[in-house]
C-alpha cells in the first residue's frame, strides 16, 4: 500500500525536485498570480523608478504600473529579476516591488491600461510558474504560493 500526502501536489507542484525527476505522474499547475496594468507612463531618459533608485532609465521608457505589491504576497526580491507575461509577450519587472504596486518596462510590448498581466501561472501565455519563481528565490513553491493574500 502506497500512501501520499497530496499537499502542494493539489496545486500542481512536486514537493521537491527529486520527486519531480523520479515521478511518473505528470502534474498540471492550477494556480496563477495575475493583475492588471492600471496606468502607463512615459518616463524620460535619466530617471529612477521606484524605491531606492533600483532601476535607472537609460532610454525613454514606457512604464506600466501594476496593481500588485508585497502586501499581496509578491516578494520584494523579484524586482529587476523576472519577466511577466502580457498578451503573450514578456516584459521585465523593474525597480523594487512596492507595498501595493510594481512596475514593468513596456518598450516594444503591445499593451494598454487594463490588460491582464501574469506574474506566474499559465505556461501557454509564456508566464513563469511558481516553481521557477521559488528556484530563483532559493526557496520552495510552498513559500511562493503561501505568501499570497
UniProtKB/TrEMBL annotation:
Is Isomerase found in the keyword set?
A: yes
User: Which terms in the GO cellular component ontology are assigned?
Assistant: cytosol
Q: Indicate the segments forming the Alanine racemase C-terminal domain, all copies.
A: 30-149
Name any one GO molecular function. pyridoxal phosphate binding
Gene Ontology BP annotations: D-alanine biosynthetic process
Tell me which cofactor or cofactors this protein depends on: pyridoxal 5'-phosphate
Q: Does the keyword Plastid apply?
A: no
Q: Which Pfam families match?
A: Ala_racemase_C
Q: Report the superkingdom from the record.
A: Bacteria
Q: Which UniProt keywords apply?
A: Isomerase, Pyridoxal phosphate
PANTHER family in the record:
ALANINE RACEMASE, ALANINE RACEMASE, CATABOLIC-RELATED
Report what the protein is called.
Alanine racemase
* Source species of the chain: Helicobacter pylori (Campylobacter pylori)
Query: What gene, per UniProt, encodes this protein?
Result: alr
Amino acid at each position: 500500500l502506497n500512501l501520499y500526502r497530496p499537499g502542494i501536489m493539489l496545486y500542481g507542484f512536486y514537493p521537491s525536485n527529486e520527486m519531480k525527476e523520479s515521478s511518473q505522474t505528470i502534474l498540471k499547475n492550477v494556480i496563477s498570480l495575475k493583475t492588471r496594468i492600471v496606468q502607463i507612463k512615459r518616463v524620460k531618459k535619466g530617471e529612477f523608478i521606484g524605491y531606492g533608485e533600483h532601476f535607472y532609465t537609460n532610454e525613454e521608457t514606457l512604464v506600466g504600473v501594476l496593481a500588485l505589491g508585497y502586501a499581496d504576497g509578491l516578494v520584494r526580491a523579484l524586482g529587476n529579476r523576472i519577466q511577466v507575461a502580457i498578451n503573450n509577450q514578456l516584459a521585465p519587472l523593474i525597480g523594487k516591488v512596492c507595498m501595493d504596486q510594481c512596475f514593468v518596462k513596456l518598450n516594444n510590448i503591445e499593451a494598454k491600461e487594463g490588460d491582464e498581466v501574469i506574474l506566474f501561472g499559465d505556461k501557454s501565455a509564456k508566464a513563469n510558474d511558481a516553481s521557477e519563481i521559488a528556484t530563483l528565490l532559493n526557496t520552495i513553491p510552498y513559500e511562493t504560493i503561501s505568501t499570497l493574500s
